[in-house]
Amino acid sequence: MSSPTSPLRTTPLHSVHRSLGATLVDFHGWEMPLRYGTIPEEHLRVRETAGVFDLCHMGRLLFTGAQAENWLQRVLSVDVSRLGTGRAKYALLLNEDGRPIDDAIVYRRESEWLLVVNASNRERVIAWCEAHRPAGEASLEDHTFDTAMIAVQGPTSAALCASVISEPEKPWNEIRYYEITRATYQPKGRGPVPVDVARTGYTGEDGFEVFVPSDEAEGFWNAVLAAGGDRAAPIGLGARDTLRLEAGMPLYGNEIDETTDPLEAGLTFALHLDKPVEFLGKKALLERQARGVARRLRGFRLESRRIPRQGMSILLDGRAVGTVTSGAPSPTLGYPIAMGYLDVDAEEQGADRLELDVRGRGERIQLHALPFYSRKRKKGS
User: Fold this and answer.
1) If we measure between CA atoms, which residue out of 343, 347, 333, 342 comes closest to residue 305?
2) Cis peptide before 250 (omega within 30 of 0)
3) 10 Å Cβ neighbour count for 342?
4) Smallest Cα–Cα separation from 95: which of 262, 249, 253?
5) CA nearest 60: which of 107, 17, 26, 109?
6) Tell me, what DSSP letter sits at residue 318?
7) pTM confidence score
8) What span, in angstroms and rounded, lies between the C-alpha atoms of 171 and 108?
9) Domain 14-55+146-246 fold
């Protein structure tokens, strides 16, 4: 959050949000849209057709130079040398104790690397990376303010993007998940604008994140919504949160932070402990891996209609054995869902007796495999 004396930052789409009547909130020092209508309506729009998100507040850091790869090998938990040109990977930046400073997506271009980080951690990530800069030619440029990032998510997102964006390096149906490609956006009355299009997202649906120059953000946003008509809608942070919760995706500040362990959080897929470079936090992770974890991140649903909230205690026979990290009613599934950390011993001893402490009253909960929602299962594949 911002301090009482510092003005909120705004994205290049701020005037658009105001004109659409968005409810604006302070999100880590940025004035961002929470919702335009109702959160359930926006959520279901993404599940059914397509939604458009302002992600300009997220940090966009460009690494270049002969030592850029070695630099990222040191500060990221994944082996970036495995990434081919045009590929992307979810990664963690860890402190020396192997605890997350941030989570990020790293994209590999021909001769450069793009790292997209959380708005709340951008300045700290820059300082952390600079503190571990390698010898030799390498540079880090912050492009958060001269580029914009807009997401188009939902089952019809590919067709919607194709109606506005042309000349991708690959046909739309051949762009793989976690792949980035160059393309062209053609504003009305002006020359073509190069853009980057990544098949990534944070909703559990198919979708794209588009990187455009900041001065083209408003025109691109309006063009996408106009092309989508009544089958596309602007989506705020509220629905973004319920969408990612259904998809079982962690949020920094909820499921992960510097007090949590990525082993507990089930993020071993983002820990390449066998990579040849000794990345920051690796030694501590290996020590904890050998000991085993005492708790794990789990999904669960309530049997009642009460709403689980971050910080609520999970109980076993009246004893606190875990804590909720995220919770909400699920617009897709129709019942309350949550993620939280649960003691391993408690899960083994009494998974069928777990309750949630809701204002002093125990509400029965059932463990639920993550993710709660999968578009693959929806399609029957």
Assistant:
1) 333
2) no
3) 24
4) 262
5) 107
6) T
7) 0.95
8) 19
9) Gyrase A; domain 2 (3.30.1360)
Tell me the pairing of strands 232-235 and 50-54. parallel
Q: Tens digits of per-residue pLDDT, 325-370?
A: 999 999 999 999 999 999 999 999 999 999 999 999 999 999 999 9
Task: Enter the tokens of residue 67.
Answer: 């030592």
CATH classification number, 59-142, choose in 3.20.20.300, 1.10.1040.10, 3.30.70.1400, 3.90.180.10: 3.30.70.1400
Query: In angstroms, rounded to a whole number, what is the distance separating the alpha carbons of residues 186 and 165?
Result: 7
Task: Convert the pLDDT of each residue in 213-258 to its tens digit.
Answer: 999 999 999 999 999 999 999 999 999 999 999 999 999 999 999 9
In degrees, to the nearest 5, what angle opens at C-alpha 114 toward C-alphas 255 and 234? Answer: 65
Write down the architecture of domain 294-378 according to CATH. Beta Barrel (2.40)
CA pair distance 43, 37, nearest whole angstrom: 11
Ordered alpha helix ranges (H), the chain: 14-19, 39-48, 68-75, 122-131, 157-162, 217-228, 237-246, 282-291, 344-350, 375-379
Rounded CA separation 199/180 (Å): 6
DSSP state of 285: H
- The two structure tokens encoding residue 261: 């362990």
Question: Residue written as tokens 């604008």?
Answer: 193
